[in-house]
């Protein structure tokens, strides 16, 4: 199975975790695109979605799924999203699709976060994938300097403006031994909107798509 087939398969498998009739939070990216398509094959499975990006909103509307505003929600039971990397503690690097801040906001209020990913995303140590940081444009050089002091190689992502009008710095060559401490540290730099480390609010369940089926990992 290639990576797209693995993504499609986990996107179908997560349908079993949805309580019919709810409004659920939805992430961003190609795995989530397959998930939105899968949702559209089951009529009225969900009442609607809270979307984490303009692109997911576009696909949700295209497939006839109503999109609601997070500010109108009293609570949210479920958030479904993928990741760029996930470790066995269910901590993640996210933001390859530049939607990290909105994803983090929705994940922070959802009672349950299910991460759907193909097996290439499962790692022992986070940091092979460049760590995205969303920043306010005027803070670019001062945040770059602070990030350099942490040991990696930060670079501004070219030709990308986030849905919030900000820019992304990706930190290369940056193995993360203590994700919670690093998330707190990078969050503390003025000008940082959010860092794509999901270690403080990690996933509750990961469904990992492999050639031999879907593996479920739950947080301990
Ligand atoms: O964090 C994300 C977007 O900001 C995505 O979850 C992550 O980039 C994985 O994407 P894909 O499903 O395309 O591999």
In short:
This protein has six helices and 14 strands. It is of the alpha/beta class and 220 residues long.
List its traits.
single chain; 220 residues; alpha/beta; Rossmann fold; Alpha-Beta Plaits; 2 domains; 7-stranded mixed sheet; 4-stranded antiparallel sheet; 6 helices; 14 strands; 27% helix; globular; binds ribulose-5-phosphate
Give an overview of the whole structure:
This protein is of the alpha/beta class and 220 residues long. It has two domains: 3-124 and 200-218, Rossmann fold (3-Layer(aba) Sandwich), CATH 3.40.50; 131-196, ACT domain (Alpha-Beta Plaits), CATH 3.30.70. It is built from six helices and 14 strands. It has helices at residues 3-13, 30-40, 54-62, 100-109, 140-148, 179-187, and strands spanning 23-26, 48-51, 67-68, 76-81, 85-86, 92-93, 110-118, 131-135, 153-156, 167-172, 192-195, 197-198, 205-210, 213-218. Helix 1 (3-13) packs across helix 2 (30-40). It is globular and about 50 Å long. It starts with a helix and ends with a strand. Bound molecules: ribulose-5-phosphate. The site of ribulose-5-phosphate has 17 residues, from helix 2 and helix 4. Its EC number is 5.3.1.6. It is an enzyme of class 5 (isomerase). Substrate binds at residues 28-31, 81-84, 94-97, 121. Catalyzes the reversible conversion of ribose-5-phosphate to ribulose 5-phosphate. This is Ribose-5-phosphate isomerase A.
């Amino acid at each position: 199975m290639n990576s797209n087939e693995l993504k499609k398969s986990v996107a179908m498998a997560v349908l079993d975790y949805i309580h019919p009739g709810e409004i659920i939070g939805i992430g961003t990216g190609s795995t989530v695109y397959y998930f939105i398509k899968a949702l559209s094959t089951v009529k009225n499975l969900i009442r609607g979605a809270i979307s984490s990006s303009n692109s997911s909103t576009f696909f949700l509307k295209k497939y006839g799924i109503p999109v609601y505003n997070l500010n109108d929600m009293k609570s949210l039971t479920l958030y479904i999203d993928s990741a760029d990397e996930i470790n066995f503690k269910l901590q993640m690097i996210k933001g390859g699709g530049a939607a990290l801040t909105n994803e983090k906001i929705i994940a922070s209020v959802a009672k349950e976060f299910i991460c759907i990913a193909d097996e290439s995303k499962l790692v022992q140590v986070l940091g092979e994938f460049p760590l995205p940081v969303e920043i306010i444009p005027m803070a670019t050089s001062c945040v770059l300097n602070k990030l350099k002091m942490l040991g990696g190689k930060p670079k501004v992502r070219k030709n990308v403006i986030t849905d919030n009008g900000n820019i992304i710095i990706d930190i290369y060559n940056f193995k993360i031994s203590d994700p919670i401490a690093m998330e707190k540290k990078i969050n503390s730099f003025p000008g940082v909107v959010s860092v794509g480390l999901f270690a403080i609010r990690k996933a509750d369940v990961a469904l990992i798509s492999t050639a031999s089926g879907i593996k479920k990992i739950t947080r301990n």
